[in-house]
Amino acid sequence: MVLLGKSRCFTWLPENKLNDEMPLMQKSILPIVATFLLVVITYSAKTHALESDNPLSVQHNQIDVTDDFQLPQMVNIPGGAARMGCVSDLGCMRFEKPVHNVSLRSFEISKYEVTFQQWDLCVAKGGCDYIPDDSGWGRGLRPVVNVSWDDIQIYIEWLNQESGKQYRLPTEAEWEHAARAGSPAPYHWGSEIGDNNANCDGCGSQWDDKKTAPVGAFNANAWGVHDMHGNVYEWVQDCWNSSYRGAPDNGASWDSGDCSKRVLRGGAWSSSAQYIRVAIRYNGDKDYRGDIRGFRLARTL
Prior knowledge:
With 301 residues, this protein is α+β, with helices and mostly antiparallel strands.
C-alpha cells in the first residue's frame, strides 16, 4: 500500500490502483511524502523516548501549542512584601547578605525551565542561529543548556516577535520570591535536602551528578513552579554585585555593578545540597556557555 496525504488525514491506496486511479501529480509527490513521513516518525520516536525518562511527562503538558508555535506555560506569582537573602540563617554565604525587605508586584514566571524543544523551534523558524550542544543527554523536554546570557536575549527577542507577548528574564528578586513560594526554609520542601526532591549531587535522584533531568521530574513548590532547586543554574536579568548592599527594594533588576557578569540562581545537577539552597547566588560572564546553565522566563502583568 501507499500512503497519500490528504489535508491532515491520510488515505491508504492499494499499489495495484496506482497506475489506474492516481493522478500524475500525486505520483510525483510520493517520494516527498515518504521522506516527510520518515522524518516525522523519527522525530516522534525520539520525543517519545525522551518523555519516557520523565516520570511526570504523562501528567502535565510542558507547553501550550498554537499551531506549530510553542508558548511557555506561565504561573502567576502573587506580589507583596518579602524578605530576600539568607533568611534561614543556615549555611549562609557572604554574598547572600544582608537580608533585606523587598516589595514586589504580581508577575508571571515560567512553570518549567526553557527546554531544548522550545529553543530548537527558534532555530527551525530562523529566529536563532546558535544550536546549543546537549552534552549527549538528549534534547526535547530537557532544559536547554550551553546558552549564555547574551544568547538568551536573542531567543527572547524572537519569542516576543513570534508571540506578540513580552517575555523577559526574571529579576533576581522575582526569581527568589517565586522559588521560596512563601517559605523561609532553605528548600521549598523544608530545611533538609531529603530524598529525590531535586537533581543535584546528593539529592537522591537518578540523574544526580550525571546530567540534567527532564523538566517537571520533581514536585512543584507551593506556587506551582518546578525545578527551582538544582538541575541547571538559571540566568536572571541582574548585573552582579557581591552583596545586597544597595540592592533595589522594589523587585526591579539591579542594573548597576559588574554588568559584564550576570547573576545565576538555583544550583545545578552537579552542585552539592548546600549550593542549591534558595538563597544561593552565583555569577557568570554574560557571554559564557556551559552545560550547568539554563534559564526560565518571566512576564510583567
